[in-house]
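Researcher: Batch entry, complex prediction.
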Amino acid sequence: MPVAASAIYFLNLRGDVLINRLYRDDVGGNMVDAFRMHIMQTKELGTCPVRQIGGCSFFYMRISNVYIVIVVSSNANVACAFKFVVEAVALFKSYFGGAFDEDAIRNNFVLIYELLDEIMDFGYPQNLSPEILKLYITQEGVRSPFSSKQSLDKPVPNATLQVTGAVGWRREGLAYKKNEVFLDIVESVNLLMSSKGSVLRCDVTGKILMKCFLSGMPDLKLGLNDKIGLEKESQLKNRPTKSGKTIELDDVTFHQCVNLTRFNSEKTVSFVPPDGEFELMKYRITEGVNLPFRVLPTIKELGRTRMEVNVKVKSVFGAKMFALGVVIKIPVPKQTAKTSFQVTSGRAKYNASIDCLVWKIRKFPGQTEPTLSAEIELISTIAEKKSWTRPPIQMEFQVPMFTASGLRVRFLKVWEKSGYNTVEWVRYITKAGSYEVRC
Amino acid sequence: MAPPAQSSRNPSPSQPSGKGEVSDLRSQLRQLAGSRAPGVDDAKRELFKKVISYMTVGIDVSSLFGEMVMCSVTPDIVLKKMCYLYVGNYAKVNPDLALLTINFLQRDCKDQDPMIRGLALRSLSSLRVANLVEYLVGPLGSGLKDNNAYVRTVAVMGALKLYHISASTCLDADFPAVLKLLMLNDSESQVVANCLSALQEIWNSESSTSEEAAREKEGLISKPFIYYLLNRLREFNEWGQCLVLELVAKYVPSYTNENFDIMNLLEDRLQHANGAVVLATIKVFLQLTLSMADVHQEVYERIKAPLLTLVSSGSPEQSYAVLSHLHLLVMRAPYIFASDYKHFYCQYNEPSYVKKLKLEMLTAVANENNTYEIVTELCEYAANVDVAIARESIRAVGKIALQQYDVNAIVDRLLQFLEMEKDYVTAEALVLVKDLLRKYPQWSHDCIAVVGNISSKNVQEPKAKAALIWMLGEYAQDMDDAPYILESLVENWEEDAPEVHLHLLTAIMKCFFRRPPETQKALGMALAAGLSDFHQDVHDRALFYYRLLQYDVSSAERVVNPPKQAVSVFADTQSNEIKDRIFDEFNSLSIVYQKPSYMFTDKDHRGPFEFSDEIGNLTVGAESEHVVPATSVDANETSDLLLSTSEKEETRAMVADGSDYTAPFYDSSNPALPLQSEPAITGLLGAADPGPQASTAIDDLLMGLDLTAPPAPASAPPPLKLNARAALDAGSFQKKWRELPVAMSQECELGSQGAAALTSPQALLHHMQANSIQCIASGGQSPNFKFFFFAQKADEPSVFLVECKINTSTTKAQLNIKAEDQSTSHEFLALFQSALSRPEAAIMALAAAWRRVSSSATGVATQSLPDCFRFKQRSFCSSATAVASADTLLAKLLQLSTSQIKRALDSVVAGRSSDLAVSESLVASLASSSPQKAKLILEWRLERMLNDGEKDRSLYSNLISLCAKIRNVPLAMTMFTSMEDRGIQATASVFNSLIHTCLSSNEVITALSLFEVMESSETFRPDSETYDTFISGFSNFRDTHRMRAWYQAKREAAYLPNALNYESLISCCVKVNDFDSADLFYNEMMAQGIAPSEKILDSVLEGLCKRRNCERVKEFVNFLMECRFEISGRLIEKVVKLYCELEKPDEMEMLLDALVEFNQVGEALLQVHCGIIRLYASLDRLDDVEYTVGRMMSQGMSFSSPGDVERVISAYFRQEAYDRLDLFLEHVTRYCKLTRSTYDLLVAGYRRAGLTEKVDSVVKDMESSGALAC
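Model: Structure tokens for the complex:
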């Protein structure tokens, strides 16, 4: 059995129960106490998200200021359990409008109980699709499509079919005046660079987010400039591949709406989209990544009480583009007493709570290289040994209209029986994942 | 459902707890129940919400059951749901009330709205009340046939719930068959998925009893059914797919290409967005190709990319789950992942559980192509802030080194680690270097050069220390000061862990065979310390080495120093079978725990969860914090294995069990060596020929090394002169103490440094001795010591007697002085205080010298001590008297060569009366260091007696038993014969002494033949003492069998057993863990009305503690108190330790109450107080800690050791309760001084918490308190 969860608890950081739902009787009621006593009150918290206490296993995740704990008594499927929690949280978020924290739970606990009853029965996950659940779990309550009070002349979509249904992600009979599709390619660049400037590790995880406001049951087809897709296309159409960059995707996963069989045979992404917002696909690329920024740090420790920091950041994307919200965090020792800076662009500040110099540049044009030079005075303490473990420099940024992988949308086609016209919006954005440069 | 205790104890403002609210709710509910006014539903909703929120936080609102049910007659679906939830929660505890709900639930089950039908059916089946199942069958049956799919999905689960409440009802209603039908025919995938879950559960548990169920269970993985599911797979939602794929993984294909067909069909699932589906698919792939090696490899290649994607996306918890699986695959096929090593690089902010797995994978995938990069990366982590990860990464480097890739580069790195000067880095690196050397001895030259520079003082962790010691022993010839480092380690014996002791013993043995003259002293000290160690293994090993040396030095060398071969393969931790089992359980918890499921779900399905038996096994990170514990068990395992294999060669012959002495190398004569024979160790070494270099003048060597005690610095001459050679025997001391009134009574300050220097009472004794104040008895345990001193005026026989109680934690000394000459008592007090207040330098210098003497003199003066002190004396060496009186002579004798001894004795000892005492103490002190001199003294004494024509048998008898000290049976025989030659008739007591000597010297056969002689004679038939000698002798050998035989013999000879016999019997039985016999003897003794000695009580208690029998320990202690025994600290310490291990604070509280009730005071009470605090601290129960500390303080007691204070501080740090910590510190510093290590802990804790101001203030405090200086 994938997961037969015996109980689910929502706890706040103090260990108070916000929500408890016992699905099965094979665990006792003192599970929360066990969790509090053996995980929360010890150093165990954060050392491992899966723990065995007594005959039971606890899976726990912290989401904002809430712990979600699943208790199982058998040899359960861990990946499935965590995925379930993540999906459930996404579902709750879509109900409360974004936030998922202690207050949101306290304000909506009745709704959460309702949802917990629907998404899991006797420990087995049922349907977690927000689109479907929203049809019949509402706080308005009386809006049940089957309620005898409802007028019968208005055609109601067959919700229970979709509660369980085959096309779980889309209901029929949708109608929009303006048929629009928004498509965002969002890439996050993960980088680990050595202090000497060599790339130790670099990869891009990208996702394609879609927002569809389309009538009826449209069939969509997406073309990218990825290698396999292009090759297959040229094979099928019997013409040579167009020149231009082709991207090799290491791995792709798709939303359940994508017809995987067709992807495997024709290498095209075709799907019937859910209504509203969803994540169409995720991909990962390790080869040929264009790093948007290079960081060149020099840190000199001058004696025991002084340090000199020079950081040069170079933007290597097109001169017409610019990055937004660039933050460079340069670590300094804990015993920093005084700092003074000079920056050629943006603003820098010493943030003692994270032991970092935080250098912010709101708008960072391409092909420029601002620098920061700082002098740092340290308190000399007796006990502190000279070695300071230098954490890496971390960077945050967003570069619109730039993809580190070079991925581009070649086409997005929409077919629908009624043959309406659609408006398509495509955006690209590259963000920093974990962008670390050792110094 | 039990309300969560904690939340009801500390209600937060939003969580009311009162009963008032409940009754309020009740009246409001009643008002609304019948009302049909508009807006009433909204009011009801608010009320229901309140009720449910109370229910959630654990307030019992079950009393509202009736009202809730009444209110639930409503068309409002939200209200209904809330009501269902409420009913579902309380029905189980209120089965009678639940009956009320049946009616409306059943009605709702027939509602025209399928939504309501489903909800009602779910609630109905969730009531979990066994006697209501009859009402469930009907609605379930119609639910399963409902034309709405939603109702059917609910009904299927309902059937499963019914099965769990009452299996027979479910089976009788034939629900499994209905479910099967649904599963095969229903158009709805969710119905099918639920049927599958339900049937799997039902048939799984039925299959053990019913053949039909077993057949059905098999049917689930039959070809037609699997194909049916696979064809419908895409209809299922993600969770349903997981379920189906899990089942498919169990399917065994029937023809060759079938697995390819299935894999082709499923390949697209690897692209699924849900990681759980991807993992389930991977499992199918792996299982299908298990028998086809090459395809299996291809599968690895295929699944690599999706797995790596899953790792890098999602929350850390999800990637942890995936990483665990990837870890398993990497371990199975490292080479496939070798080129992807960069994926396993750690990011700075990743949680440590992720980092740990990644480190292990980096280790596994290292090969000749990537080692350099990986090791470079790992070295970066060694500087990581997270100490646990830093340690892991160093270990990882070591493991890679042992996989023998590019060792060159790695050795360089390792040596760099050693230069990083971080304790934990050094520690880990040392362990590593050791393992490395075992595999690549050729590197020894480079490594030893660096290791030699490491001061053993900077290495604290036992494992690292053990590694360092191993290298010192193994490469003794290459490291110049190896023997001296080892010696200094032996001197600090008490500071180290048993693990270190074991290695120290072995290393010193090895060193001894390579550099005998230099190591001789260290070896003697180590063996003596080992023999008196409380740890069983340490003791046994020391004894083993000792006997080995005694037997034959060259065979000892063969055993300890065999030609070693480099270790080529280190043992694997898990068997292949277990690994395969884990692999079979892919995609489950087994992978995360890295053990097959039967290992952790054995107690599965045992019904409601019980904690009681588990809690004891769960440690809560109690150890003191300043050394961050190495967290990973797995990583430690390898090095453990290394250590243990390293010992194997040496310990092959050594069977740990003390009773099995007849190992082949041993003499055929019965093994016998009493434990009190430490004094003879060095003598033995002298006699043994350790090798060609050492053959010359071992005696001189000994003299030069062992006992050149540095001259005590003379104190400033006070007006009062004391006789440096004052002598007073215990009897007269006792007499005088009773007669004299207390002349002076004063409390004085000891000076913090002095107290700190007073690491052991011996040091003080020796210091006082240098000031001509002799100790006659001492006792107590840190921090409270008690001493009895005496001194004599230089020019007249008038003596001073002092009782001195010292508390090292408060650094105060309480003095009671009695003087024969009252007029000078003031001067004496001044003198005494001045001596007491500046012992530091003298003590430092003397401590070392003392240890040498004390180790040799243990146990000598036991008999001569005054009775009133006997209770206390055992806690540490008490031979001070003898040493004191003979001190000067001893020093003199040591400087003389052997030939001059007799003449010197002649000149010194003129009078007859004192010389026996003198020779006795001299022999005792000399026995260990210079047995030859001791022998000479005895010979001299014999000559004198013969010359004087001594006729007193008892003197001869005494002399003979002194031979036991140096284990010289021939000398004893000579004495015996010369006595008989003088025409002095032998008596039983003389024979007894002879037997005692024989037994002490391991000559059991001789002892037995002596006994036969006695039996056949007329005049000296064996008396009760003879039997006693045998009993205690065999008890010392731990030979229970013979001991009991002799005990039986004594009884048959019509002698009554005495307390001493029982002492031997019981302590021996307890030592060999024969508790039943110990109990038997104890009961027998009590039945005979013999009062137990403290040692017996001690042994009995130890036995009970070893058995961890809490109840009986409690009974026993209560019994002791009821009988008005004084409970010693040592006794209670055992109990406290046991309770702490078992984590029983309540028991301790009871113990404390009992102690107070019976007016027990002092040490014992303090021990219990500290024990309770320790336990609460380790459980992080800060409130309790504070209460108990306050209670202890209010009774005028203070922490006995800084360790306890540190434990409490650590608990505060763990809880991050810094304000409370401040309060605590303020409180504690009022009563006792903090030590350096405590300050260190505080600094480390605050620094970790990032409280720099606190760190500064602690450092300031530390400086001002002077703790920094020492």
